[in-house]
Amino acid sequence: MTGLHLEGTASIDGTTVFDGVALPVVAGRWTCLLGRSGVGKSTIMRLIAGLADHVRFTGRIDGDDGQQLDQRITLMAQQDSLLPWLNTIDNVLLGARLRGQQLDRDRASQLIDQVGLGAHLHKKPHALSGGQRQRVALARTLMEDRPLVLLDEPFSALDARVRAEMQELAAEQLAGRTVLLVTHDPGEAARLGDNIHVMTGTGLITVEPPSTPVIRAYDDAEVLACQGRLLRLLREAS
After folding, report:
1. What is the domain partition of the chain in residue ranges?
2. 96 contacts 103 by C-beta, under 8 angstroms
3. What are the residues whose beta carbons fall under 8 Å from the beta carbon of 221, sequence distance 6 or more?
4. Which of 61, 69, 118, 202 qualifies as a FRET site for 109, CA 20 to 30 Å off?
5. What are the backbone dihedrals phi and psi of residue 61, each rounded to the nearest 5 degrees, phi first?
6. What CATH topology corresponds to 4-72+146-236?
7. Are strands 148-152 and 178-182 parallel, antiparallel or unpaired?
8. How far from 47 is each of 11, 20, 122, 137, CA to CA, in Å?
9. What are the distances in angstroms from CA 216 to CA 47, 115, 221?
10. Per-residue pLDDT tens digits of the chain, which is 238 residues long
């Protein structure tokens, strides 16, 4: 397992996105990053993923072990980005296909079964619900088998019940991996965060998470109290 650390300043077309942010992502834990829209959360995610060529970044992004992060990171975004002409199993195998690697259909089938879609192997995205498509996206993320997982608001488009189910499924399937979750949802961070940071225009505010292990009950008293603290910070943040 390895963690990572981002520290620096970012700008786009001469406009500062964030300045002097220092974000630790602890090995083997869930780190949750919240903040208002436009504060730079997704920019941080894209920088770590190596998908921010349009961003001028001054600083460092590296693993705790001093090794390069490329080839060790996978990203699951808000949109499932499934290819409509591929069925479930072929969407899960997309990364390997694009890299020209041998397709491990047995492992893909196993992962699809683990996320509860064993009966939908050959369905195309139009035949799946929003929650089911996100389950396919999670299986595709797991298929990459990377130690560092970036989750960029992957459940925000789902209704409350399905979102709670996906949080629980992700916590189970990603146990032991290093996870950075960007979210707008204080309740989600309170359920999932081992480490929780609120991003503001002046830096990061670290918030003490509930004392119980991930994943936490949504109606647990500590979770509700943490959710309240986070919402207060988000409303007060500049």
Report:
1. 4-72+146-236, 84-145
2. yes
3. none
4. 69
5. -135, 110
6. Rossmann fold (3.40.50)
7. parallel
8. 12, 15, 35, 21
9. 30, 19, 10
10. 689 999 999 999 989 999 989 999 999 999 999 998 888 898 999 999 888 889 999 999 988 887 777 778 999 988 889 999 999 999 999 999 999 899 999 999 999 998 999 999 999 999 999 889 999 999 999 999 899 999 998 888 888 888 898 899 899 989 999 999 999 999 999 999 999 999 998 889 999 999 999 999 999 999 999 999 999 999 887 6
Q: Scan for tokens 């996100």, then name that residue.
A: 134
Which position has the token pair 């089938």? 109
Which tokens go with 192? 């999932």
